């Protein structure tokens, strides 16, 4: 699609770019990474920049896509992808994607609007951070549902409420979250799903809940294991049950996939920018390597893939926004297909651009002192998040098979 931004959208993009260039530059990201490497931290700073999060919240970014009734800006996916692209461009070490793009939409989708308001207000302000307790590799379902059999956490009736059991090996930003939102299978004969809310501070000394930070390839995004060892939860901690949970979390996974694609686009763009700048400065055989035709061709291919991903992502964002407004099943099916295609384009662009950035930086490209290695690690880690390429291809293949059958 032809990318045409409104004046308001241009302001959002440009403001985010200027702010993150100043507050999440390479030095700031490396301080967070170095802190993770130095000590296993279990507080809010584990893999996060608390000061950057405070400023992001003050800018109103946490509520940009939430309704005005809960303190949000009332915008939507087209504006949020602009922010996520800039977040990805600077590898911003804040739990923005996990809280704003996954947890908040899960609450919106699983709860009735009147019930959701009280939960969404602190998320919109950024005073509260939430983590959706699902494995990082959970794939969005082509039908937009969350299947009970995909969950490793289950709940059974207990005295005055429920008891949670199970383990989730890798969860985004669980360390430092104020709330854990836990989808679980219900063992009550009827089966089905429920969404539980846990106040982490209230459970800080409870050995039946264990949140353990993990050492991963990408130190710019915190991941932790979460264990429920017969954890009692009162009845009020069960926010929703039944089909609404399956639909709400299923929709949140697709929304998160779109925003992850936008983040990957930002990373690809930064790799291109870094490479072009380096090629203009690096002298070989008495000339800047940017003057060599082979280097030009490789940079041009980076740009082609990046622009193709940008077009696909913005097209998918508009399709998703229209489908949500229309509440029409056919439009939502088409939007999910667009998101799958956008994820494929973003994956390809990010993987290619990180590899080319390392190669075109020559002998220093893989070293710790240069930034391409940070983006390469993010690209490798993100390739398996939310199902990765395999899940997106399954969605596209299923749609093509259905069209052929008709």
From TrEMBL:
Tree of life domain: Bacteria
A Pfam match: Acyl-CoA_dh_1
Sections of the chain in a coiled coil: none
Family indicated by similarity: Belongs to the acyl-CoA dehydrogenase family.
Cofactor requirement: FAD
Domain annotation Acyl-CoA dehydrogenase/oxidase C-terminal: ranges: 252-397
Keywords, alphabetical: FAD, Flavoprotein, Oxidoreductase
The Acyl-CoA dehydrogenase/oxidase N-terminal domain, residue ranges: 8-126
Name of the protein described by the UniProt record: Acyl-CoA/acyl-ACP dehydrogenase
InterPro entries referenced in this protein's UniProt entry, alphabetically: AcylCo_DH-like_C (IPR036250), AcylCo_DH/oxidase_C (IPR009075), AcylCoA_DH/ox_N (IPR013786), AcylCoA_DH/ox_N_sf (IPR037069), AcylCoA_DH/oxidase_NM_dom_sf (IPR009100)
């Amino acid at each position: 699609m032809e990318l045409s931004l409104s004046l308001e959208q241009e302001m959002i993009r440009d403001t985010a770019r200027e702010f993150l260039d100043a507050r999440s530059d390479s030095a700031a990201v490396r301080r967070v990474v170095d802190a993770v490497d130095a000590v296993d931290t279990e507080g809010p700073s584990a893999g996060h920049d608390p000061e950057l999060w405070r400023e992001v919240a003050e800018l109103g970014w946490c509520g940009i896509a939430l309704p005005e009734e809960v303190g949000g800006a009332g915008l939507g996916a087209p504006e949020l992808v602009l922010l996520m692209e800039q977040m990805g461009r600077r590898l911003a070490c804040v739990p923005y994607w996990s809280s704003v793009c996954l947890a908040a939409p899960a609450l919106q989708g699983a709860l009735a609007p009147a019930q959701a308001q009280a939960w969404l207000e602190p998320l919109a302000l950024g005073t509260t951070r939430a983590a959706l307790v699902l494995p990082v590799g959970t794939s969005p379902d082509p039908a937009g549902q969350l299947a009970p059999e995909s969950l490793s956490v289950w709940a059974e009736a207990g005295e005055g409420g429920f008891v949670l059991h199970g383990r989730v090996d890798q969860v985004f930003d669980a360390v430092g979250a104020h709330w854990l939102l836990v989808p679980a299978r219900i063992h009550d004969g009827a089966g089905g799903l429920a969404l539980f809310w846990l106040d982490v501070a209230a459970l800080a000394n409870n050995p039946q809940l264990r949140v353990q930070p993990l050492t991963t390839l990408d130190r710019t995004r915190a991941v932790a294991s979460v264990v429920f060892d017969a954890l009692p939860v009162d009845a009020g901690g069960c926010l929703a049950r039944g089909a609404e949970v399956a639909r709400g979390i299923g929709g949140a996974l697709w929304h998160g996939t779109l925003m992850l694609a936008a983040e990957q686009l930002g990373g690809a763009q930064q790799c291109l920018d870094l490479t072009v700048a380096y090629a203009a400065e690096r002298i070989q055989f008495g000339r800047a390597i940017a003057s060599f035709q082979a280097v030009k061709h490789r940079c041009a291919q980076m740009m082609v893939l990046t622009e193709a991903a940008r077009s696909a992502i913005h097209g998918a964002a508009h399709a998703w926004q229209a489908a949500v407004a229309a509440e029409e099943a056919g439009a939502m099916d088409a939007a999910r297909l667009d998101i799958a295609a956008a994820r494929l384009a973003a994956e390809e662009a990010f993987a290619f651009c990180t590899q080319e950035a390392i190669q075109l930086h020559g002998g220093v490209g893989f070293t710790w002192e240069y930034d391409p290695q940070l983006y390469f690690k993010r690209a490798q880690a993100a390739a398996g998040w939310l199902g990765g390429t395999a899940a997106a291809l399954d969605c596209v293949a299923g749609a093509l098979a259905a069209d052929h059958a008709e």
